[in-house]
Design goal:
two-stranded antiparallel ribbon; single chain; mainly alpha; about 75% helix
Length: about 400
Protein backbone atom coordinates (compact mmCIF):
# COMPACT_ATOMS: atom_id res chain seq x y z
CA UNK A 1 0.00 0.00 0.00
CA UNK A 2 2.95 2.33 0.52
CA UNK A 3 3.81 1.94 -3.16
CA UNK A 4 0.25 2.88 -4.13
CA UNK A 5 0.56 5.93 -1.86
CA UNK A 6 3.65 7.17 -3.70
CA UNK A 7 1.92 6.71 -7.07
CA UNK A 8 -1.16 8.52 -5.74
CA UNK A 9 0.93 11.46 -4.55
CA UNK A 10 2.46 11.73 -8.01
CA UNK A 11 -1.03 11.77 -9.53
CA UNK A 12 -1.97 14.52 -7.06
CA UNK A 13 1.12 16.47 -8.12
CA UNK A 14 0.12 16.07 -11.77
CA UNK A 15 -3.33 17.45 -10.87
CA UNK A 16 -1.62 20.50 -9.39
CA UNK A 17 0.47 21.05 -12.50
CA UNK A 18 -2.62 20.86 -14.71
CA UNK A 19 -4.31 23.40 -12.43
CA UNK A 20 -1.26 25.66 -12.69
CA UNK A 21 -1.51 25.51 -16.48
CA UNK A 22 -5.20 26.35 -16.09
CA UNK A 23 -4.27 29.46 -14.11
CA UNK A 24 -2.13 30.68 -16.97
CA UNK A 25 -4.81 29.94 -19.57
CA UNK A 26 -7.46 31.68 -17.47
CA UNK A 27 -5.33 34.80 -17.22
CA UNK A 28 -4.62 34.86 -20.95
CA UNK A 29 -8.22 34.20 -22.01
CA UNK A 30 -9.58 36.74 -19.54
CA UNK A 31 -7.13 39.35 -20.80
CA UNK A 32 -8.19 38.75 -24.40
CA UNK A 33 -11.90 38.93 -23.57
CA UNK A 34 -11.48 42.00 -21.38
CA UNK A 35 -9.52 43.89 -24.02
CA UNK A 36 -11.84 42.86 -26.82
CA UNK A 37 -15.11 43.56 -24.99
CA UNK A 38 -16.84 46.78 -24.06
CA UNK A 39 -18.45 48.09 -20.93
CA UNK A 40 -20.09 45.42 -18.81
CA UNK A 41 -18.60 42.57 -20.88
CA UNK A 42 -15.08 43.66 -19.99
CA UNK A 43 -15.94 43.89 -16.30
CA UNK A 44 -17.67 40.48 -16.33
CA UNK A 45 -14.69 38.89 -18.08
CA UNK A 46 -12.36 40.37 -15.50
CA UNK A 47 -14.43 39.07 -12.59
CA UNK A 48 -14.76 35.59 -14.08
CA UNK A 49 -11.03 35.44 -14.79
CA UNK A 50 -10.13 36.48 -11.29
CA UNK A 51 -12.48 33.90 -9.76
CA UNK A 52 -11.11 31.13 -11.95
CA UNK A 53 -7.50 32.11 -11.33
CA UNK A 54 -7.94 32.19 -7.57
CA UNK A 55 -9.64 28.78 -7.39
CA UNK A 56 -7.23 27.11 -9.78
CA UNK A 57 -4.30 28.56 -7.86
CA UNK A 58 -5.54 26.71 -4.75
CA UNK A 59 -5.58 23.45 -6.73
CA UNK A 60 -2.17 24.26 -8.23
CA UNK A 61 -0.70 24.04 -4.72
CA UNK A 62 -1.10 20.24 -5.05
CA UNK A 63 1.98 20.27 -7.30
CA UNK A 64 4.01 20.11 -4.08
CA UNK A 65 3.02 16.45 -3.79
CA UNK A 66 5.49 15.69 -6.58
CA UNK A 67 8.26 16.71 -4.18
CA UNK A 68 6.63 14.86 -1.27
CA UNK A 69 6.47 11.65 -3.32
CA UNK A 70 10.26 11.64 -3.69
CA UNK A 71 10.58 11.00 0.05
CA UNK A 72 8.29 7.93 -0.29
CA UNK A 73 6.04 8.59 2.73
CA UNK A 74 3.98 5.74 4.11
CA UNK A 75 0.24 5.21 3.71
CA UNK A 76 -0.78 6.90 6.96
CA UNK A 77 1.34 10.02 6.39
CA UNK A 78 0.16 10.26 2.79
CA UNK A 79 -3.49 10.19 3.89
CA UNK A 80 -2.91 12.92 6.48
CA UNK A 81 -1.13 15.18 3.98
CA UNK A 82 -3.85 14.86 1.33
CA UNK A 83 -6.67 15.30 3.89
CA UNK A 84 -4.97 18.41 5.28
CA UNK A 85 -4.58 19.85 1.78
CA UNK A 86 -8.27 19.21 0.98
CA UNK A 87 -9.51 20.78 4.22
CA UNK A 88 -7.23 23.82 3.93
CA UNK A 89 -8.19 24.25 0.27
CA UNK A 90 -11.89 24.05 1.20
CA UNK A 91 -11.48 26.75 3.85
CA UNK A 92 -9.58 29.06 1.48
CA UNK A 93 -12.11 28.64 -1.35
CA UNK A 94 -15.05 29.13 1.02
CA UNK A 95 -13.54 32.25 2.57
CA UNK A 96 -12.84 33.73 -0.84
CA UNK A 97 -16.42 33.09 -1.95
CA UNK A 98 -17.71 34.80 1.18
CA UNK A 99 -15.48 37.82 0.54
CA UNK A 100 -16.79 38.07 -3.02
CA UNK A 101 -20.35 37.57 -1.86
CA UNK A 102 -20.90 35.00 -4.61
CA UNK A 103 -21.70 31.45 -3.48
CA UNK A 104 -23.01 30.19 -6.83
CA UNK A 105 -20.25 27.64 -7.57
CA UNK A 106 -18.90 26.95 -4.07
CA UNK A 107 -20.45 23.47 -3.85
CA UNK A 108 -18.92 22.55 -7.22
CA UNK A 109 -15.48 23.79 -6.20
CA UNK A 110 -15.63 21.83 -2.94
CA UNK A 111 -16.89 18.71 -4.74
CA UNK A 112 -13.87 18.86 -7.04
CA UNK A 113 -11.60 18.83 -4.01
CA UNK A 114 -13.42 15.78 -2.63
CA UNK A 115 -13.07 13.94 -5.94
CA UNK A 116 -9.37 14.83 -5.83
CA UNK A 117 -8.98 12.60 -2.76
CA UNK A 118 -10.49 9.60 -4.56
CA UNK A 119 -7.84 9.71 -7.26
CA UNK A 120 -4.89 10.16 -4.92
CA UNK A 121 -3.72 7.96 -2.03
CA UNK A 122 -5.78 4.89 -0.99
CA UNK A 123 -8.37 6.28 1.44
CA UNK A 124 -10.65 3.89 3.27
CA UNK A 125 -14.35 4.46 2.48
CA UNK A 126 -15.10 5.67 6.01
CA UNK A 127 -12.26 8.18 5.76
CA UNK A 128 -13.59 9.55 2.47
CA UNK A 129 -17.06 9.81 3.96
CA UNK A 130 -15.70 11.65 7.00
CA UNK A 131 -13.75 14.05 4.80
CA UNK A 132 -16.87 14.70 2.70
CA UNK A 133 -18.84 15.34 5.86
CA UNK A 134 -16.32 17.94 7.03
CA UNK A 135 -16.47 19.67 3.64
CA UNK A 136 -20.28 19.67 3.87
CA UNK A 137 -20.05 21.25 7.33
CA UNK A 138 -17.77 23.96 5.93
CA UNK A 139 -20.24 24.60 3.10
CA UNK A 140 -23.21 24.75 5.51
CA UNK A 141 -21.34 27.11 7.81
CA UNK A 142 -20.58 29.38 4.87
CA UNK A 143 -24.28 29.50 3.92
CA UNK A 144 -25.23 30.31 7.51
CA UNK A 145 -22.60 33.04 7.70
CA UNK A 146 -23.76 34.51 4.40
CA UNK A 147 -27.29 34.76 5.83
CA UNK A 148 -26.17 36.61 8.96
CA UNK A 149 -24.12 39.14 7.00
CA UNK A 150 -27.05 40.12 4.86
CA UNK A 151 -26.19 38.13 1.73
CA UNK A 152 -29.52 36.67 0.71
CA UNK A 153 -29.36 33.01 -0.26
CA UNK A 154 -32.51 31.43 -1.57
CA UNK A 155 -33.51 28.58 0.76
CA UNK A 156 -34.42 26.24 -2.06
CA UNK A 157 -31.17 26.97 -3.89
CA UNK A 158 -29.19 26.39 -0.70
CA UNK A 159 -30.89 23.02 -0.18
CA UNK A 160 -30.19 22.02 -3.78
CA UNK A 161 -26.49 22.91 -3.41
CA UNK A 162 -26.27 21.04 -0.13
CA UNK A 163 -27.99 18.02 -1.69
CA UNK A 164 -25.54 18.16 -4.59
CA UNK A 165 -22.60 18.21 -2.21
CA UNK A 166 -24.02 15.29 -0.21
CA UNK A 167 -24.60 13.34 -3.42
CA UNK A 168 -20.98 13.91 -4.47
CA UNK A 169 -19.87 12.82 -0.99
CA UNK A 170 -21.72 9.50 -1.26
CA UNK A 171 -20.54 9.02 -4.84
CA UNK A 172 -16.92 9.67 -3.81
CA UNK A 173 -17.32 7.22 -0.91
CA UNK A 174 -18.61 4.53 -3.26
CA UNK A 175 -15.74 5.16 -5.70
CA UNK A 176 -13.26 5.13 -2.84
CA UNK A 177 -14.67 1.80 -1.61
CA UNK A 178 -14.30 0.23 -5.04
CA UNK A 179 -10.76 1.54 -5.54
CA UNK A 180 -9.69 0.66 -2.02
CA UNK A 181 -11.04 -2.88 -2.34
CA UNK A 182 -9.17 -3.31 -5.62
CA UNK A 183 -5.93 -1.95 -4.20
CA UNK A 184 -6.34 -4.04 -1.07
CA UNK A 185 -6.94 -7.16 -3.15
CA UNK A 186 -3.89 -6.38 -5.28
CA UNK A 187 -1.82 -5.90 -2.12
CA UNK A 188 -2.97 -9.23 -0.69
CA UNK A 189 -2.28 -10.92 -4.01
CA UNK A 190 1.23 -9.48 -4.01
CA UNK A 191 1.83 -10.80 -0.50
CA UNK A 192 0.48 -14.21 -1.50
CA UNK A 193 2.79 -14.32 -4.53
CA UNK A 194 5.74 -13.33 -2.35
CA UNK A 195 4.98 -16.17 0.06
CA UNK A 196 4.65 -18.65 -2.83
CA UNK A 197 7.93 -17.43 -4.28
CA UNK A 198 9.65 -17.95 -0.92
CA UNK A 199 8.20 -21.47 -0.74
CA UNK A 200 9.42 -22.27 -4.25
CA UNK A 201 12.89 -21.00 -3.41
CA UNK A 202 12.92 -23.12 -0.26
CA UNK A 203 11.75 -26.21 -2.18
CA UNK A 204 14.47 -25.60 -4.75
CA UNK A 205 17.01 -25.36 -1.94
CA UNK A 206 15.82 -28.62 -0.41
CA UNK A 207 15.92 -30.35 -3.81
CA UNK A 208 19.49 -29.23 -4.39
CA UNK A 209 20.26 -30.21 -0.80
CA UNK A 210 19.23 -33.76 -1.66
CA UNK A 211 21.68 -33.69 -4.56
CA UNK A 212 24.37 -32.46 -2.19
CA UNK A 213 23.98 -35.27 0.30
CA UNK A 214 26.24 -37.74 -1.47
CA UNK A 215 28.82 -35.06 -2.18
CA UNK A 216 28.77 -33.91 1.42
CA UNK A 217 29.23 -37.48 2.65
CA UNK A 218 32.27 -37.89 0.41
CA UNK A 219 33.70 -34.51 1.38
CA UNK A 220 33.27 -35.30 5.07
CA UNK A 221 34.85 -38.71 4.67
CA UNK A 222 38.25 -37.30 3.76
CA UNK A 223 38.71 -34.93 6.74
CA UNK A 224 37.27 -37.53 9.12
CA UNK A 225 39.74 -40.11 7.82
CA UNK A 226 42.56 -37.63 8.46
CA UNK A 227 41.23 -36.94 11.96
CA UNK A 228 41.05 -40.66 12.75
CA UNK A 229 44.50 -41.39 11.33
CA UNK A 230 46.25 -38.49 13.05
CA UNK A 231 44.43 -39.26 16.29
CA UNK A 232 45.72 -42.84 16.12
CA UNK A 233 49.25 -41.59 15.45
CA UNK A 234 48.92 -39.20 18.36
CA UNK A 235 47.96 -42.06 20.67
CA UNK A 236 51.02 -44.03 19.50
CA UNK A 237 53.29 -41.02 20.02
CA UNK A 238 51.91 -40.54 23.52
CA UNK A 239 52.68 -44.18 24.27
CA UNK A 240 56.25 -43.69 23.01
CA UNK A 241 56.59 -40.51 25.06
CA UNK A 242 55.36 -42.24 28.20
CA UNK A 243 57.71 -45.17 27.64
CA UNK A 244 60.69 -42.88 27.12
CA UNK A 245 59.94 -40.82 30.23
CA UNK A 246 59.49 -43.90 32.44
CA UNK A 247 62.84 -45.41 31.35
CA UNK A 248 64.69 -43.05 33.69
CA UNK A 249 62.13 -41.89 36.28
CA UNK A 250 64.73 -39.92 38.28
CA UNK A 251 65.62 -37.58 35.42
CA UNK A 252 64.73 -33.90 35.82
CA UNK A 253 61.63 -32.79 33.91
CA UNK A 254 63.54 -30.35 31.72
CA UNK A 255 66.02 -33.05 30.69
CA UNK A 256 63.18 -35.48 29.97
CA UNK A 257 61.46 -32.90 27.79
CA UNK A 258 64.66 -32.13 25.92
CA UNK A 259 65.16 -35.81 25.24
CA UNK A 260 61.63 -36.15 23.90
CA UNK A 261 61.64 -32.95 21.81
CA UNK A 262 61.13 -34.82 18.53
CA UNK A 263 58.17 -36.76 19.94
CA UNK A 264 56.63 -33.55 21.27
CA UNK A 265 57.02 -31.84 17.89
CA UNK A 266 55.35 -34.78 16.16
CA UNK A 267 52.47 -34.75 18.67
CA UNK A 268 52.00 -30.99 18.20
CA UNK A 269 52.02 -31.41 14.42
CA UNK A 270 49.43 -34.20 14.59
CA UNK A 271 47.22 -32.15 16.90
CA UNK A 272 47.35 -29.23 14.47
CA UNK A 273 46.41 -31.56 11.61
CA UNK A 274 43.47 -32.87 13.63
CA UNK A 275 42.30 -29.29 14.28
CA UNK A 276 42.73 -28.33 10.62
CA UNK A 277 40.68 -31.21 9.25
CA UNK A 278 38.13 -30.92 12.05
CA UNK A 279 37.54 -27.31 11.02
CA UNK A 280 37.25 -28.39 7.42
CA UNK A 281 34.53 -30.90 8.34
CA UNK A 282 32.81 -28.27 10.45
CA UNK A 283 32.87 -25.84 7.52
CA UNK A 284 31.24 -28.39 5.22
CA UNK A 285 28.46 -29.04 7.72
CA UNK A 286 27.93 -25.31 8.26
CA UNK A 287 27.68 -24.75 4.51
CA UNK A 288 25.13 -27.52 4.20
CA UNK A 289 23.03 -26.09 7.04
CA UNK A 290 23.27 -22.57 5.62
CA UNK A 291 22.19 -23.89 2.22
CA UNK A 292 19.00 -25.29 3.74
CA UNK A 293 17.94 -22.06 5.48
CA UNK A 294 14.61 -20.56 4.46
CA UNK A 295 16.06 -17.04 4.63
CA UNK A 296 19.53 -16.12 3.33
CA UNK A 297 22.09 -14.74 5.72
CA UNK A 298 23.51 -11.20 5.60
CA UNK A 299 26.04 -9.96 3.09
CA UNK A 300 29.59 -10.28 4.33
CA UNK A 301 33.15 -10.72 3.13
CA UNK A 302 33.93 -14.32 2.24
CA UNK A 303 36.83 -16.05 0.43
CA UNK A 304 35.52 -16.68 -3.07
CA UNK A 305 38.09 -19.28 -4.12
CA UNK A 306 37.44 -21.43 -1.03
CA UNK A 307 33.72 -21.28 -1.74
CA UNK A 308 34.30 -22.34 -5.34
CA UNK A 309 36.53 -25.26 -4.32
CA UNK A 310 33.97 -26.41 -1.80
CA UNK A 311 31.02 -26.40 -4.19
CA UNK A 312 33.00 -27.88 -7.07
CA UNK A 313 33.84 -30.81 -4.79
CA UNK A 314 30.26 -31.15 -3.56
CA UNK A 315 28.77 -31.05 -7.08
CA UNK A 316 31.34 -33.46 -8.50
CA UNK A 317 31.12 -36.06 -5.73
CA UNK A 318 27.32 -35.76 -5.67
CA UNK A 319 27.29 -36.59 -9.39
CA UNK A 320 29.79 -39.40 -8.89
CA UNK A 321 27.61 -40.95 -6.19
CA UNK A 322 24.70 -41.10 -8.62
CA UNK A 323 26.76 -42.10 -11.70
CA UNK A 324 29.79 -43.95 -10.39
CA UNK A 325 31.18 -44.85 -13.81
CA UNK A 326 31.37 -41.27 -15.04
CA UNK A 327 34.59 -39.28 -14.58
CA UNK A 328 35.28 -35.60 -15.32
CA UNK A 329 38.62 -33.83 -15.46
CA UNK A 330 38.43 -30.86 -13.11
CA UNK A 331 40.59 -27.88 -14.06
CA UNK A 332 40.61 -25.20 -11.36
CA UNK A 333 42.31 -21.93 -12.31
CA UNK A 334 41.65 -19.73 -9.29
CA UNK A 335 43.55 -16.46 -9.00
CA UNK A 336 44.77 -15.89 -5.44
CA UNK A 337 44.44 -12.12 -6.02
CA UNK A 338 40.66 -12.49 -5.82
CA UNK A 339 40.76 -12.75 -2.02
CA UNK A 340 37.51 -11.98 -0.19
CA UNK A 341 34.37 -10.62 -1.86
CA UNK A 342 31.28 -9.10 -0.24
CA UNK A 343 28.38 -11.48 -0.91
CA UNK A 344 25.79 -13.75 0.66
CA UNK A 345 27.81 -17.00 0.65
CA UNK A 346 24.73 -19.26 0.98
CA UNK A 347 23.00 -17.72 -2.04
CA UNK A 348 26.19 -17.50 -4.09
CA UNK A 349 26.95 -21.12 -3.29
CA UNK A 350 23.51 -22.10 -4.58
CA UNK A 351 24.24 -20.22 -7.81
CA UNK A 352 27.55 -22.04 -8.24
CA UNK A 353 25.92 -25.38 -7.44
CA UNK A 354 23.22 -24.90 -10.09
CA UNK A 355 25.74 -23.85 -12.74
CA UNK A 356 28.07 -26.74 -11.93
CA UNK A 357 25.21 -29.23 -11.90
CA UNK A 358 24.07 -28.01 -15.34
CA UNK A 359 27.60 -28.31 -16.70
CA UNK A 360 28.04 -31.83 -15.32
CA UNK A 361 24.70 -32.93 -16.77
CA UNK A 362 25.69 -31.54 -20.18
CA UNK A 363 29.02 -33.40 -20.04
CA UNK A 364 27.32 -36.64 -19.05
CA UNK A 365 24.85 -36.24 -21.92
CA UNK A 366 27.62 -35.75 -24.48
CA UNK A 367 29.64 -38.62 -23.03
CA UNK A 368 26.63 -40.90 -23.57
CA UNK A 369 26.29 -39.77 -27.18
CA UNK A 370 29.98 -39.78 -28.21
CA UNK A 371 32.15 -42.79 -27.28
CA UNK A 372 35.67 -41.79 -26.33
CA UNK A 373 34.65 -38.26 -25.30
CA UNK A 374 36.88 -36.79 -22.55
CA UNK A 375 34.75 -34.43 -20.41
CA UNK A 376 36.51 -31.40 -18.91
CA UNK A 377 35.07 -28.90 -16.45
CA UNK A 378 37.07 -25.70 -16.01
CA UNK A 379 36.45 -23.13 -13.27
CA UNK A 380 38.20 -19.76 -13.35
CA UNK A 381 38.23 -16.79 -10.98
CA UNK A 382 39.74 -13.39 -11.69
CA UNK A 383 39.65 -9.99 -9.97
CA UNK A 384 37.11 -7.64 -11.52
CA UNK A 385 36.77 -3.93 -10.85
CA UNK A 386 37.79 -2.49 -7.50
CA UNK A 387 36.32 -5.02 -5.09
CA UNK A 388 34.63 -7.59 -7.32
CA UNK A 389 35.52 -10.86 -8.99
CA UNK A 390 34.60 -12.66 -12.20
CA UNK A 391 33.89 -16.38 -12.21
CA UNK A 392 33.71 -18.50 -15.37
CA UNK A 393 32.43 -22.09 -15.43
CA UNK A 394 33.34 -23.71 -18.74
CA UNK A 395 32.66 -27.23 -20.03
CA UNK A 396 33.31 -28.92 -23.36
CA UNK A 397 29.78 -30.28 -23.54
CA UNK A 398 27.21 -29.78 -26.30
CA UNK A 399 26.47 -26.17 -25.29
CA UNK A 400 23.11 -24.43 -25.31
CA UNK A 401 21.08 -24.91 -28.51
CA UNK A 402 20.44 -21.71 -30.49
CA UNK A 403 16.70 -22.36 -30.34
CA UNK A 404 16.84 -22.12 -26.53
Amino acid sequence: MDGATVIGLRVAGLFGIVALVGVGLAVVITSVLANGGVGGMSESARQIGEALSDKLFVYAAAAVFFVVARFRPGLVLGRWLVALFVLMGSLVITWEELIRGDLEFMAAWLSLLLLFTVGSVPFQPIQTLLLGGLITVIHTGALALAGTTGSLVDTGEAVRRLSFLLLVTFLSTAMSAALYAGRRGQYRGTLRLARLRDRLVQQEKMASLGQLTAGVAHELKNPLNFVNNFAQLLVELLDDFEEEVREVPDRPVAEALDGSADLLDDMRSNALKIREHGRRADGIIRSMLAHSRAQPGPSREAPLNSLLKEYVGLAYHGMRAEHSGFNVELDLDLDEAVGTVVMVPEEMGRVFLNLLDNALQALRQKAGEEPGFAPVLRVESRPWGKKGARVRIIDNGPGIPEAA
